[in-house]
Specification:
Layout lengths: L1 E6 L10 H6 L1 H15 L4 E7 L4 H10 L3 H19 L6 E4 L3 H12 L5 E11 L4 E2 L5 E4 L8 E2 L16 E5 L7 E10 L5 H10 L5 H13 L4 E2 L1 E2 L16 E2 L1 H19 L15 E8 L3 H15 L8 E5 L2 E3 L23 H10 L7 E3 L1 H31 L13 H22 L3 H22 L1 H7 L1 H22 L4 H10 L41 H22 L6
Parallel strand pairs: 1-2, 1-13, 2-3, 13-14, 15-16
Antiparallel strand pairs: 4-5, 4-9, 6-7, 6-8, 9-10, 11-12
């Protein structure tokens, strides 16, 4: 089985915030780490890249009097370093839309769709103040369906309906706020209507696709799929490959979606195995997982599969499109201009990055918008990580040190109690249950299985009380600590996708090494043998030194720290990201 993992490509005109991160890149990384353990490293490819074309970058470059690529070069390298080094994201290839491999592939792919492409004149919104044609997303106004006053020209974030700039009530330029005019211009359109039945049949019959994704895609089909413009009148982008398309570039959404394929091609080309990319895009033994925010569902569940179908090449369609709802910050939307939220280069100054990784997955908005609060973040770290997992590990290993000289004791299965057998069964089943959830893109639900095993371990210790048994029945104490120590190995493996360094630390305290080479299907095995020498035992986690008695004071303290951090960090950001 080959597993293809992708995260939505972040646009480089700003540093991603925590909501961006959990919606795509962090979620994809957690799944990719799990998949490598489950299916083998050689059978998993994880890609993404910087989305760097389009109007916002072009405008910013004009303001600064520089070429757009100068700005995107800096921003790409800055973001890439944050992902790889700070957040420990394990991309096989983090590329960019300025990659020559990408540009070459996009042009070639679109030429193969000519059967479904037609040329039409269209009235495109034009801002007389800014002197440029405006992409759909740069038109804002009131949604004609639900009345949402901040809808974009391509889609309403409130009701999810597909829009066009002409449908908006009181349309305005998102750059300057002036009312645009509509100018006639020639464009190349991809006829989505040709694929209505195929999209409906595919998405309806999928046994793995989340219901929110199915709902949005089927809603689009029901409303009637219409031709979508592939070209734009922007200068900054990939030149359109069609005959007569002078001064036209490819619409960023069409090219970014094709970036998943080009990134795979580029990766294997660099590896010196040019044709291996096909193993992850063709055939019946491929599963593909896309991690995105809910506003990107239509592009991944309708436009991408339609393009893949139109190619006639037999590309594998998405298996799971794991879409998150919005993560709010203290009840409000993230906003750079209003300084609401936390950006990924600021977060490391406030809390251990692996704590962040776990907290964000625990708050992952899988079914509805979720509110990040510092009170909840502190609770997750201090209670779930420190008390549930860390305290359990410390209790078990300290007793092995104290009662059995630091060696895993020899059990006697013939005198196992019902409580012993019950907990053994839980240890064996926990990775299976978590794996089933991970396969559906339900990462937050997966952490529940991890925490349940740790909590059940603590309950098991309290029930069997080896500190008393050691005085009256040493063999029973040995049985308990043998079983409990093996449960820690299982917990470490289950924790690895979320917190690789802390999982490795726990693994080392048990006396083992090389957790990244463990196989998921063996996570519930009793692989620790009697006589195994455990390592140095020390607290796995540290409680956050933040008072939560007064939530208002807690917020004030965090915001004060954040202001200090921002003054320092913003000076070091590339020009485009300040």
């Amino acid at each position: 089985m080959k597993i293809f993992v992708a995260s939505a490509w972040p646009y480089v005109n700003s540093v991603p915030h925590l909501g961006n991160l959990i919606g795509s890149i962090l979620s994809a990384d957690v799944f990719a780490r799990y998949a490598r353990m489950k299916y083998g490293k050689e059978n998993v490819v994880f890609v993404s890249g910087s989305d760097e074309h389009g109007t916002p970058i072009e405008i910013e470059a004009k303001k600064r009097g520089v070429h757009p690529k100068l700005l995107t070069d800096q921003a790409h390298e800055y973001d890439k370093k944050l992902f790889l080094e700070t957040w420990k994201i394990t991309f096989d290839n983090y590329t960019r839309t300025e990659s020559e491999v990408h540009k070459e592939f996009v042009r070639s792919f679109l030429l193969n769709l000519r059967k479904y492409i037609k040329v039409e004149e269209d009235e495109i919104p034009y801002c007389e103040h800014d002197k440029l044609f405006l992409p759909d997303r740069f038109i804002k106004g009131t949604c004609p369906y639900c009345g949402f006053e901040d809808a974009r020209g391509d889609q309403c974030d409130n009701c999810g309906r597909l829009l066009t700039p002409k449908l908006l009530i009181n349309p305005k330029c998102a750059l300057c706020g002036s009312k645009p005019i509509f100018k006639r211009t020639k464009h190349w359109f991809f006829d989505l209507s040709e694929f209505s039945d195929k999209i409906r049949d595919w998405i309806s019959s999928s046994p793995y696709m989340p219901e929110n994704v199915k709902s949005v895609a089927l809603s689009w089909v029901k409303e009637g799929l219409k031709p979508r413009s592939i070209t734009r009148d922007n200068a900054w982008g990939i030149p359109a490959p069609f005959e007569g398309a002078v001064n036209k570039t490819v619409y960023v959404w069409f090219e970014a979606l094709l970036g998943y394929i080009s990134a795979t091609i580029e990766y294997f080309r660099k590896e010196g195995n040019e044709e291996k990319w096909k193993e992850f895009w063709f055939g019946n033994d491929v599963k593909s997982y896309y991690f995105i925010g809910k506003d990107n569902i239509p592009f991944h569940a309708v436009i991408l599969p339609a393009m893949l179908m139109a190619s006639g090449e037999g590309y594998v369609l998405p298996t799971v499109i794991a879409s998150t709802e919005y993560l709010l910050y203290e009840g409000q939307k993230f906003s750079k201009s209003r300084k609401i939220g936390i950006w990924i280069d600021e977060a490391k100054e406030l809390m251990d990055i692996e704590y962040w990784r776990f907290v964000l997955i625990r708050l992952r908005p899988e079914e509805k918008d979720t509110n990040f609060t510092w009170r909840e973040a502190v609770r997750i770290v201090n209670t779930e990580l420190n008390d549930d997992i860390g305290n359990y590990a410390n209790r078990v290993l300290s007793m092995v040190k104290r009662y059995f000289g630091g060696e895993v004791p020899n059990p006697d299965e013939s005198v196992y109690t019902d409580d012993d057998r019950k907990f053994i069964n839980e240890i064996k089943e926990a990775p299976k249950k978590m794996g089933e959830l991970m396969e559906l893109g339900k990462l937050k639900a997966g952490t529940e299985e991890l925490l349940k095993l740790a909590r059940d371990g603590n309950s098991y210790l309290n029930l069997r009380a080896p500190w008393n048994l050691i005085k009256t029945d040493k063999q029973q104490a040995a049985n308990v600590l043998y079983i409990a120590t093996n449960s820690l190995r299982t917990i470490a493996i289950m924790m690895y996708p979320f917190m690789p360094d802390h999982a490795s630390k726990l693994y080392s305290q048990i006396g083992l090494s090389g957790i990244q080479n463990e196989k998921w299907d063996n996570a519930g095995d009793f692989a620790i043998k009697p006589g195994q020498k455990i390592g140095n035992v020390e607290p796995l986690f540290k409680k956050l030194d933040l008072s939560i008695e007064d939530e208002f004071k807690l917020q004030e303290e965090i915001h004060r720290k954040l202001e200090e951090i921002r003054k320092k960090i913003e000076k070091n950001r590339p020009e485009l990201l300040r």
